[in-house]
Amino acid sequence: MPERPETPVADRELTAEAVAEVLPIDAGLAVPMAAVEADEGIAKKKLGIGAWIAIVWLVGLVLACLLVPILPVSGVEERNSDLAFQQPFCTAADCVSGHPLGGDSIGRDMLARLIYGARNSLFVGIGSVTMGILVGGFLGLVAGYRRGRLETAIVAAMDVMLSVPALILALALTIFLEERVQEIFKSKETAGRLTLTFALGIIAIPTLARITRANTLVWSQREFVTAARAQGAKDFRIMFREVLPNVVPAMAAIALLAVAVIVIAEASISILGAGIDLPAPTWGNTIVGGYKHLTNGKAPHIVFEPSAAIFITVLSLNYLGDAVRAKFDVREAGV
Amino acid sequence: MIAAACGGSGGGGGEGGGEGATFDDPPTDEGTPQRGGKVTYGLEAETGGGWCLPSSQLAAGGIQVAGAIYDTLTIPANDGEGGVEYVPFLAESVEPDDTFTQWTIKVREGITFHDGTPLNAEAVKGTLDAFRGQNPNIGAPLFTFVFEKVSAVDVVDDLTVMVTTEVPWVAFDAFLWSTGRLGIVAPAQLAAPDTCNRNLIGTGPFRIINCETESCGWTINDKFVAEANPDYWREDENGEKLPYLDAIEFRPVIDVAQRVNGLKGGELNMIHTTDGQQTENLRTDADAGTVNLFESDFAAETSYTMLNTDESSPFSNQHARLAVAYAGDPQEFIDLTQAGLPARSVQPFSPDNLAYNDPADVKFPKQDLDKAREEIELYKQDTGQSELAFDLLSTTDPGTVEIAQLLQSQVEEAGIRVTLEQVEQTQIINTALAGDFQAVLWRNHPGGDPDTQLVWWFSVVESGADNFVNFSRIHDADIDRIFTEGRSETDPAARAEIYKELPKVFAEQAYNIWGWYTLWAFAGADDVHGIFPPTLPDGQEPVVIASVQSVVGMWIG
Amino acid sequence: MNRADIPTWVWPVAALVVVLFLFLFVSATIAMAVVGLGLAGSVVVFAGWRRLVQVFVVILLVTFFASMLIRFLPGDPTDSLLGFATPEQKAQVADELGLNDPFYVQYGRFVEDFFTGETRYYQSSGRAIGGQKVWERLGDALPISLQLMFYAQILALVFALPIGIFAAYKAGTRMDKGLNTVAFGLLSLPNFVLAYILIYWLAVKNNVFPSQGYVPFGESASEHFKSMFLPSVSLAVGQIAIYMRLLRSDMIQTLQEDFITMARAKGLTTRRILLRHALRPSSFSLLTVAAINLGALIGGAVVLEVVFQLGGVGTLIIQAVNEQQFIALQTFVGLIAIAYVGANVAVDVLYSVLDPRIRHARAA
Q1: Which of C249, C317, C337 sits opposite A37 (nearest CB)?
Q2: CATH number, domain at C268?
Q3: Paired strand residues for B35
Q4: Within a domain: residue C298?
């Protein structure tokens, strides 16, 4: 396990960036992803009970997504008129049994909609963060290691991208890409997923690049890097063999936090009217489709169930991400 | 859902619903109208293109605003037998000659536009010519086609205009209403085409502060504010000047739940809606006395699935159309998404229309999955396709998307594969115009004389080119014949017989999958009265057709 | 004086100047309050000019980038403008709107219009063109977004400060752990989910607040606050959690420092120590994020604006995207970029002034 470096305070880059890395995506608000301790206790213990609950939820969710075809859950398109508007945990005589989470407005099983929705929402979340880390991480690594003009160019480009309000950019990209992607991939659901993944991936790139760069900066100044250079190792080799392994753990933490933000972003984009089209379910579009039944009081569970799913998932990801970061992130040595 | 509506006359009684007042019995004694106050009216959509009436595509929301600012030459009235006749409104008289090729229109004396200029024959001619596409500065693509058969509009004297038509046009007076779209526009508004869509000058009960360069009064996507016209020409039965209100404000609130909540919360004191679930909700409130509710499905428009019969679409094959007709169950839509309120329709015309047939006579396909599968097989044999698959288009409105998902789910049971697509409200008319669809959820054909629906289904325009607003690209010789003959048949009984064939042709060909008759609900706060309009100037009882609710008689107290 | 009498270019220039000066002024004020030195002034000015040029370049890049992207949006403005029209009519309108000109010409026109306040919506009436100025629509929408922002931030700070200080003081206790857990939960709660909960509980079930709509303050103060309450609370709650944790985290470290120990030894009351000695040095992160949020929120909390139908800048943006109002959209992006970059500049300046370590490093 890499130790934390002790860089003298005065040498550190004390700009707004370093203090609060922010992913300005959620409603245009800053969501600081650093400089906040999850819990002092965590750094000492292995992983607290909270983190384990989070892991259980997330793993359970992923398993449910993967195994849903063989689980005793209705099909995602299966519909039963009698099930329409049925409340969750309904026990009255005229309730259709076997639907613990109730039915949606046209008679589909809510549990099925949620699990299949999770598939889409998580696909988008994980996919776009992966893309963001691969591209943004690479850019950040290069910028942080090489310094100089290349760094300035990359930083400037990232700054420009960050200045466009992220949600708007994502919205525009989604609308723009949708048609074109659909020409390639005939399936609407696949096209929708890929479009959204790509669009959200693009807006994740600048922040992930920034964070990677910040981490790389610190690690590049270590003695073993200087030593490797003195031995004549090529830049790329040093970057990938010496620096990267040390940066990865911190990035893993950030990745978890980023997935949480992207899950919220997917729902936000659905609320704004873009996003994956029904009948393919996502948590976001289930909320949008069910909103009129919240406000007319008939079936608020159609909105609240996916909302709860989003909340618990985001909470778990945040908690886990915080815990991991508290263990690994080099910049945690208080600012 | 879209309303791209045209109006007309009609016959037969209407049904209202539940606790709302109906066409048959509008609210009785509401007390003495009081002056003052403002109505804030929540509309279902904004009118992005503004109100240059000859060229605007007014949907329900736009027609409401137009009705406040403008008056039409004729207006639908209760004919005393549960039907509708078109009576002079802004006009003093509208008389055809014996051949129905010359219509003499005389306007009432002493009426002025909001800018003080007189309502006279020149102004009427100017408006009618603009609607006919004769104004070089104002395009009127749809109405030019509607009024194709008008050959001339001539000024006879200061108050009288004569319209000459190429063919005998029996129901021309219905067209002078055109579901409230044919408001008479002041020459000054038409003379400035740049600002025509927002510098609105009419003769109506409300006026906006006329702004030549800025768009005062109308803030797009926000509100449209108009003050009472102090020189309005109408009075109520007791000689009191109309309108009673000081001002009216129209606000587009697209989300119906928010519109209803706005009413309950007090931000709006008047709304309209076609959503069955919300109407059910409003009935409960009406029972409790917290809202005043008026419902009407009189001369209603129909909500349906429109099919594109163009060669590029699977629906060019009759078997494909029939397959979808047999596979679907619109009653389930009604029950699940409209709280069971509206009435099922198997034809485009409502019971009040002279072309209405008894549903049993129409023989529209009833849900029968076996028959649907048979039709699919026939389709496959005809075309060599391995399956029947189509795209279903709808707006992004969640309520409409629900219906689309239901339809998809129903027909998939028969083995038809459906892909859903959602398009912004602002884009959907263009998509339809371009024929860029296979099936789309639609709403149209309110009430009235069947003649007014010619424009949607006739195959060609005068020049012989394809009719560009015949979205379904229907080229049916029977339909063309029905419309041609019906327009000029002077004997009412014979005319009705001609038009009655139309629903049967539609049922046989399944060009459109009819759903239900749209039920409009108009709800005001408990202190808002006069939702049902006052007696007409010449003493007749008015009617409320589709979404057109006249605001002239509303009062607060 | 009538609004129409003032030359139109005055507005955006004035706004730009006001926004930048506001942030610089706020930074300088805080700096002087905290540090109490005239040194603050000179640092602000120096840093300001260099960064101003940077800001200008970034804004041009952002608008260029955004304009290119927007050009690629599917759909043609003439479609939503004209509805029923023949292709020839649409082509003519497209010409009149300048949509067929090469990109650099259109961009140049946009930049010129942007800095003179002349950017307009596309609007067509039959054949003639003439749309409302974007700035006018903004004039109505901007106050709404700003109000939402201010109310939410004020609410957030009002709650976060005392709770954060308290939690830091009680660091490690069960009370602190409890607060932390609650805060963590709240910052994981998406603001629109909270909005749905509040709407259902307070607007649908119990008609206490309106579920949508905006009432201007001038129209009715009580209705105004009622209409803004649910949106502000929805926006603020997440921020309370974030600010509280930032403050707590920084304050815990500050409280461990020598000068605090010395203050305690001197016998100062806890309250005095917390508020007068510990609070200021601990507020860097909090102020940073708050300032960045101010900048970011100029663009409106888009999702909440849609949920509550507030008609602020965010709503305008979404409408512009849906209606292919390219010029309007580019204008909004440009303005938001200015605000956001301006906020970042202010924060940088603020930071370099506030942090004694940098000042001492520079002075050395």
Answers
A1: C249
A2: 1.10.3720.10
A3: none
A4: yes
